[in-house]
Structures are given as structure tokens and as C-alpha cells.
Amino acid sequence: MDSKTIYLKRQSSDTMLDLSQKIMDDMHKESPNAEVVVYNIEHVGEAEVLLLGFEKYYYRIKSCASVVIQCIHVGDKQVATVSGLGGGTGRLLMSWGVNEDFANIAAEVLKAHGFH
Fold first, then answer.
1. DSSP codes of every residue in 30-88
2. Alpha carbon distances (Å) from 113 to 71, 98, 107
3. Averaged pLDDT, groups of 10, the chain, 116 residues long
4. What order of strands is seen across the sheet that includes strand 47-58?
5. Could you tell me if 110 and 8 are in contact, meaning their C-beta atoms sit under 8 angstroms apart?
6. Is 79 left (phi over 0), alpha (psi -120 to 50) or beta?
7. What spatial distance separates the first Cα and last Cα of the chain, rounded to whole Å?
């Protein structure tokens, strides 16, 4: 099974609640059949941590792929980790690039909100 991880950052004072709504709205625009399967915001000391997970069925592999987005906000700095996972099919669990496609969609959504 393959995976694709992308690291991004930005400077912003947006809360993780505000950012999560923007991400979920844009993910539904970019990938209408993607479902939110994980949604959590935690406060750890001075840090605010967002964890979002999406799942999407890909017809070309007849299987689901997932993307997990973790954002950490401290002060005016935010870092994001995007991981596209799963999507393997057959004996060799070939993903045919769907996990990378899904991770790239999520990364583009974050880039639209100032991450780089």
C-alpha cells in the first residue's frame, strides 16, 4: 500500500475551527463524494491542533482512499501535514496513484488558504 505525505506552513491567526470549516467546504467543492470520517480539535498548552480525515471511493481501483490533514497552530504560525493513504487493490495492493491524487487535492485546498 502506498502513501503520499505533504508538509505545508503559513502565518495566520485563523482559529482551527475557522480553518476546518474552510477546508471541509473546499474539499466538498473539489471532491464532492469525499466524506468527513474524522474531525477533532484539541488544545494542548498554547497549541491548537486540528485533525481532519476524509475518505473517497475511486472507481478506477474499486476501493477507497483516505486523506488525513493535521494542522497545528501556535501563535501566528500554522503547520500542516497532509497524508494520502490506502486505495490499494489486488494482490499487490496497487493504488494506481489515487492516494497521491487525494493528497494533492487536499494540499491545493490548503494552498488556496495561504499555505505553502
1. H-TT-EEEEEEEEEETTEEEEEEEEEEEETTTTEEEEEEEEEEEETTEEEEEEEEEE--
2. 13, 23, 10
3. 87 96 97 95 97 89 86 97 76 63 95 98
4. 3-11, 77-86, 63-74, 47-58, 35-44
5. yes
6. beta
7. 27
